[in-house]
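assembly run, all chains below
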Amino acid sequence: MRRTLPRLAAVTAASALMFAATAGIAMAQETEVPEPDTFTSMYTVLATPDTIINNDGESVPGEPGATGEFNFRINSDDEIICYDITLRGVTGEYESPAKTATHIHEANVGEPGPPRLAFPDPSGEGDTRTSSGCLQGPFTTGLEGDNGQDTATGFTLSQIEANPAGFTADTHTADYAAGTVRGQLTEVPMGGVETGAGGATHDAAMYAIGAAGLAAAAGAGVVLVRRSRAQG
Amino acid sequence: MLSALFPGVVALLLMLTACGAPAATDAPDAPEPPTAPITQEPVVAEQGEVLPTSLRIPAIGVDEPELLRLGVADDNTAEVPQDFSRVGWFDRGTNPGPTVLLGHVDSRAGPAVFFDLRDLGPGDVIEVGRSDGTVEEYVVERTQQMPKDEFPTFEVFGATASDVLRLVTCAGEFDRGERSYIDNLVVHARAG
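ok done. output:
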């Protein structure tokens, strides 16, 4: 018993040290965060198997019949990216030298390039696999680049906003190491679409709203608040 | 009870007057107010590209021999046609995805090119002409109206592997103070 106590203490101390070390690493990595209230840009990707480029820059086939829809929402002020990924027809185990196999690479169409973001791999039963969430940087990919540093070191989401066409999304499996499906980022507009100037509306509608406001001033307040929110 | 409401009446009247000021130019025969110079170009495909270049919707009498090229505006919203009588195509470059066409429901003078879009229903046919001379026929599946602040960005502009068409315009109440409609209307159609 007497011998166990010091050993236990030693183990506890070692665990504490390991915990501290792990926590230190965790702080240096991206974290899963709740969805922010606002975004600064949004992107979509249709990933297909006919766009795969291996590390030598050669065009190679992806998984026949597979497709991927990658939708991204970025808040570059807070360094948060939210992802909604749906893969259809992707089979087999994921495989990648990075920490996950589903990435955004910095690469133009038809060119290879290093991963800058690594997302949790999509999962699910049957033909469809999905993955959704939000990550906050600074980011890591777990892959060492030519300079000996993680390929996400120094990367910020503002680089995507500056040149979305220079980034591509893909996912890798054991059978399709260069990628099963891949596609370039396309920026999509945010918010509603301003397609009307009101010339064909009737003023009666306005007076109707006015009457509602008279009947219940508080109600009118709600209408006004909602209208101001509806802008843009 | 009524007297208690008078301040509200005054406030509302003031609001109506303020909103009414620009209404003088809203008369049906008033010319469009001068805006920024027209900078949008029609869609012209380059060698090897096949792009949508025209639109016909027989059910509501839309026949546009030319489409404008649109993108994302500086404020990150969707660019819309500067000319209220024209339809625009959201240019996603060479990246595949849904065909999204945008048009105004009205100008300040009266109905615009997509005024009757609300009358489309399931089964109606939409023809999109392409730069290679072919015509793709789409069939309306559903229409969807939602407040602009709940606009389903990825349901409209998001990538999809199937050949789909989405037409977007404004709908609902018009907020004269904001000079903006509260809602958007989206027509979803699939290659027939």
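Chain B touches chain A through 64 residues (CB under 8 Å).

The two ends of chain B are 61 Å apart (CA to CA).

not gonna interpret more than that til we talk
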